[in-house]
């Protein structure tokens, strides 16, 4: 089932999310719905708060974003109760967007390498190192479960330039090609 994506201005997007246990109600169905919702909106990641749930879960599929012949460098995973262990490497800028903030993009600086501890959909614990685009997408979605939106990480001038658009999104005056939930 395709879920509505919560738009900028929804309070759930600013919450630090709670961990869940393996007996979270209908977890398997939630994960399936998140995948379907993410693909329907042509996203590469989707976090719990973006579907109205203040829980520590997100889905990532960077395989679709990799250059032809490089698809094996991408990842398709569910991350539950993720915790950053360490970030490092060179800081690099990359233009990001967000399904909760349609039609706004901006350069965000992030470290190139991330070590993350998380549970998969079967509640098997993993600790892995990610880099490049995979690290970037994970960092973006991880920020969601910490109540942080990419627009908060923009340079001051860009923040000022997008402020009016953000207000319009929060009032439901800017739509998207997919189902959204506004205030």
| Overall helicity | 10-25%
Number of strand elements: 7
Query: What would you call the shape?
Result: globular
CA distance, first residue to last residue: 22 Å
**What composes the largest sheet?**
5 strands, antiparallel
Instruction: Indicate the CATH class.
Output: Alpha Beta
Please tell me the CATH architecture by its name. Answer: Alpha-Beta Complex
Q: How many independent structural domains?
A: 1
Model regions low in confidence, pLDDT < 50 over at least 5 residues: none
Q: Helical segment tally?
A: 3
The CATH homologous superfamily is named Peptide deformylase
CATH domain fold name? Peptide Deformylase
Radius of gyration: 16 Å
Q: Please list the strands of the largest sheet in the order they lie side by side.
A: 2-3-4-5-6
Task: Please tell me the overall pLDDT.
Answer: 97
- Strand residue content: 25-35%
Q: From N to C, what is the helix and strand string? A: EHEEEEEHHE
Oligomer: single chain
Structure classification: alpha+beta
Structural summary, described in words:
The chain has one domain (5-162): Peptide Deformylase (Alpha-Beta Complex), CATH 3.90.45.10. Helix content is 23%, strand content 33%. It has three helices and seven strands. The protein has a five-stranded antiparallel beta sheet, with helices on both faces. The chain has a two-stranded parallel ribbon with strand order 1-7. It is globular and about 45 Å long. The two termini are 22 Å apart. The mean pLDDT is 97.
SSE order and pairing:
Blueprint: E1 5-6, H1 27-40, E2 45-47, E3 57-61, E4 76-98, E5 101-119, E6 125-131, H2 132-145, H3 156-170, E7 180-181
Parallel strand pairs: 1-7
Antiparallel strand pairs: 2-3, 3-4, 4-5, 5-6
């Amino acid at each position: 089932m395709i879920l509505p994506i919560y738009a900028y201005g929804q309070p759930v997007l600013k919450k630090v999310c709670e961990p869940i246990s393996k007996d979270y109600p209908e977890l398997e169905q939630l994960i399936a719905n998140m995948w379907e919702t993410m693909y329907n909106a042509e996203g590469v990641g989707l976090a719990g708060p973006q579907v109205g749930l203040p829980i520590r879960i997100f889905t990532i599929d960077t395989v679709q974003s990799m250059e032809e012949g490089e698809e094996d460098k991408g990842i398709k995973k569910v991350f539950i109760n993720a915790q950053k262990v360490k970030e490092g490497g060179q800081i690099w800028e990359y233009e990001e967007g967000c399904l909760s903030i349609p039609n706004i993009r901006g350069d965000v600086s992030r470290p190139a390498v991330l070590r993350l501890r998380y549970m998969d959909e079967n509640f098997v614990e993993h600790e892995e190192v990610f880099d490049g685009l995979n690290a970037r997408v994970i960092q973006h979605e991880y920020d969601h479960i910490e109540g942080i939106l990419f627009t908060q990480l923009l340079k001051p001038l860009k923040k000022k330039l997008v402020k009016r658009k953000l207000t319009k999104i929060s009032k439901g005056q800017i739509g998207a090609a997919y189902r959204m939930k506004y205030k």
